[in-house]
Backbone:
């Protein structure tokens, strides 16, 4: 089972940017995921940035999703937080 099939298998969106090769979920050892997401928000261009499943006070919890539009000019720079199956605007720790 490749990543895309696995992702659909666990209920992920069938039009996920992951399946199109335009999104990654990342973590950086030694840097909390809220710090990482904040740095990306403030320094890089992206379509969608999502701080996923992060729990305040647990720096290594969750991960950071970074998605890109097909064309650089179409990147919307949307930052969201996903927690308890709910998306919130911005990065909320
Ligand atoms: Zn992701």
Residues:
């Amino acid at each position: 089972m490749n990543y895309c099939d696995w992702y659909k298998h666990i209920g992920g969106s069938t039009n996920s940017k992951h399946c199109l090769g335009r999104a990654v979920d990342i973590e950086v050892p030694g840097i909390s995921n809220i710090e990482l997401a904040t740095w990306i928000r403030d320094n890089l261009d992206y379509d969608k940035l999502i701080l996923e499943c992060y729990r305040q006070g647990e720096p290594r919890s969750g991960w950071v999703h970074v998605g890109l539009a097909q064309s650089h000019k179409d990147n919307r720079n949307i930052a969201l937080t996903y927690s308890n199956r709910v998306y919130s605007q911005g990065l909320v720790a």
Remarks:
- The beta strands are 23-26, 48-52, 63-67, 78-83, 86-89.
